Amino acid sequence: MSVTPTKKRLAPAITLRYALGLTQKMAASSRHPDRGLTLIEGLVAIVIVSVTLVSITPPIFWATGTRVQNRRAEQALQLAQGEIDRVRTLVDQGQATIDLLPPNAGTNNIRAANSVPAPIIPKDGNVISVNPLCTNRDDGKAPDSPTKYLQVNTDPNPENSNDCKANFLIQTFRSTGFDENGIVPAGTTAPAGFVMGVRVYSIVAERNVGKLLTEQASLKGTNGLGNQLTRPLAVQYSTIVRSNASKNLDIYRKLCPSSGAGGC
User: Fold this and answer.
1) Average pLDDT value for the chain
2) φ/ψ (deg, to 5) at 162
3) Is the whole-model pTM more than 0.70?
4) Mean pLDDT across the stretch 211-226?
């Protein structure tokens, strides 16, 4: 019969297909997708994650520290300029008195290097704050010595209106100056013209009072406090002369005798 040869030809193909199928089943059964990670694989993963964290953490700290330092420096500059504007307004309006003006440094050349030392003690009183609810607000009078500093709060605690901790230290001082006749004033007479200086330190510098420096801090990239610990964030000088004084030009010339001298 013709059936037998056909069966003989199909038998090897069926056998081969069965063998391949059995092999695939055995291979699949030998795999364990839920067997988890081996100890070596876990250690490799930990090493990779650690290396990644170590490589990206320093730039994050550096960027954060630099941003905070720049923000403080900008605030310090605004505080220094604001104090100069306040005193200038008092002088122009004829309301300047000795207790409202910066303390006298005893010289007419306050811009000379280290002619006015860094502050060493806080002013008697409390904190100057923009928050009217602060219970420890300062009386508004100027310090009686160039070596005293003011404590200033610019960021009141929104959760506690009575918590007005200082953010900055401000040192203000002035030259002896001249009266309207171009003479060095005596006693309690307020000068008609003088050179004013302002140094603004971060509050973190208070821990180094007695070792503070007078040169302005260098604003470089940093992941820490940088020069804020010992140097002022802002240093400003300004020649202040009453604008409606009849001899204001002569007073200005006395305060600025030559280029690079005095307060000019």
Assistant:
1) 78
2) -90, -5
3) yes
4) 76
